[in-house]
Please model this.
Amino acid sequence: MKLLKLIFKNSLRHKLRSSLTIIGIAIAIIAFGLLRTVVTVWNSGVDAASANRLITRQAVSFIFPLPASYRAKIASVPGVKEIGAANWFGGVYKDKSNFFAHMAVDDNYFVVYPEFIVPKDEMEEYKKNRNACIIGSQTAKQYNIKLGDQVVLEGDIYPGRWEFNVKGIYTPRDQNTDATQMLFHYEYLNETMLQQSPGRANSVGWYIVQIEDPNNSASVSKQIDALFMNSTAETKTETEKAFTQGFISASGAIITSMNFMSFAIIGIIMLVLANTMIMAARERTREYAVFKTLGFSAKHLTGLILGESLLISFLGGGVGLFLLYPLIEGFERAMPKGFFPYFYVEPITIILAVTATLLVGVLSSVFPIHRALNTKIVDGFRHVG
Amino acid sequence: MADIIQVNNLSKSYWRNSLEIPVLSELSLNVNEGEFLALMGPSGSGKTTLLNIIAGIDRPTNGSVSVSGTDISKLNESALAKWRSSNVGFVFQFYNLIPVLTAFENVELPLLLTKLNKSERKKHVETALNIVGLGDRIYHYPKQLSGGQEQRVAIARAIVTDPLLLVADEPTGDLDKNSADEILTLMERLNKEFNKTIVMVTHDPHAASRASSLLHLDKGVLSTNGQSH
Ligand SMILES: Nc1ncnc2c1ncn2[C@@H]1O[C@H](COP(=O)(O)OP(=O)(O)OP(=O)(O)O)[C@@H](O)[C@H]1O
Ligand SMILES: [Mg+2]
Model:
């Protein structure tokens, strides 16, 4: 297009105004990217949940344990394939700000969570050692923990000083697999409890039930819960997805407002750019009259204005996206360690940001284009501005 | 000589809040090919309005305007735009150059709508700028030129497509006497040497005296006061 040069020259006419608009758009795109990343990271915890896993927990709250004896009964329900057990251990590693899950699990845990990949020889070593533990690769990297290292947890739910020997490091199978957990033998915890406070022994935090067919999740859940109806510890069985959602629902309001804010930001930059474009077009009313007089068509004027609007919005969007990655890394470092297990910019965030940039560019030019096209030539020449 | 412009029973009104403001009423006018017509009259008498209608950037309320055989009052917007781009050159009081474009680029603008390629366009632009005597200023921006020079760039832009008709609305209205003389000499040359038909609105009797004919417009009525007509 022969008018391309003019589009560039027009956008450079008010260098300060254009620069401020571009910086404004860049900041907005960064804010948008950050918010979207937090939202998607949050949701990916839910997405990572497998559809063929059920979680059986105490009906009142998942902080109350279930008897270890339930395992065999659950196994008898038709459609159940495998059962794993886990106890939330809590505890502090070195410092309270170090946040990653520590859980006591049975060996079947690694069967029902095939997305935690443990090398065969490491798994054998783990099984041989009573106080062995397996650590997610991300946590291992973050705290520089290596195979053979000693890891000490200061217990709170289970008081005392607990020593573990790192025998394995698991790697995540999928991008949204949690690679931060620290897992150790349920037996180690249980034996210690038997000695120290037998009343707390032989109890399980929750069961992870792998089922044959995800379509049967509702009926299998019902049958499991029916087994323990009217017992002292009734159960609530639901899909892992529902469980995870319940787990984070307390934060739901924050996420909803972040969602809303991320799109409100797009609305704001639209106003900023629209304002710039309206001012520019108003100043050029006479010039548009000249173009029309010379025989330039509506298509040409639309191209001129839309082109400039898109140029500015994409410059701003480009700068914003370019800075987003280093900023996300900085943001992650500034957060409590391991607070977000997997912090990365999702492709959908980029797609949304680019779409938003395009949309902002187009919509901001609608009003100035409409005005330029509908101003009669003679009125354009009589315009004083 | 053949009439190039035929205006018949032209009326023009503007409306402000459904109130009709009549500007021109039942006005007729013929301009010969090769004529250099000056149009004078008091402020608000409708000179600009008449010129704009003849040049196809405004529309008559009633009556017809035909230019070299085309009844332009019957053309639709896009046909009219196309007609303007190949038949009329415009010169304005305030030059109306695009400030971010160089003299060369300003003169090149009308050629962007033609099929000419880059080197052909360059040749035409250079020829036009040489005719107006600005061959050495082609990469200057409007604000680096004097008013007279800016007006000469505007004239180069008006003639670069080699139109039949030049319309000029107070082309010397914003210039000092010397610059105005240069512009008028240039227009005379375009009329005599390049056989352009020119219709020029002016307030200045001195400018009007350089034209080959003169008409007065007062209260929407034309009166002959010049050498011909
Ligand atoms: N686009 C328009 N809308 C409304 N009224 C207009 C418009 N153009 C001109 N007029 C009115 O029409 C009348 C004639 O205007 P015009 O500009 O043709 O006069 P003129 O003879 O060129 O005056 P001047 O010597 O001051 O340039 C004026 O009263 C003016 O206010
Ligand atoms: Mg006028």
